[in-house]
């Protein structure tokens, strides 16, 4: 039996609980990390479809039922790391949906091992994402 592909993005239980609160209020959600300065480098949560993705964005997978995208330029810096979305108290200065709750999402990361890099989950650009295989 083949091993499951190495996930590129994970989520903590605390972040899952926040996602549940936001989903109850806003419906289906998505995440995007732009790689801009300051809070632009934090993962931002939007109502699904509210942030338009394209060929300059990379789909890394799903966290707690939410698609997670990153700008392609930022992905070049992070492609060797596994990202974990977490949440902490404090206000960010972004348009992310969690801000009114007095919390903010952030990324924790670690380098992939050589073994993990041999079996990576696929990534798709924002347009390929729409036509990716159903199993992805």
UniProtKB/TrEMBL annotation:
Origin: domain of life: Bacteria
Pfam families with a match to the protein in the record: DUF779
Protein name: DUF779 domain-containing protein
Organism name: Hymenobacter chitinivorans DSM 11115
InterPro entries, alphabetized: DUF779
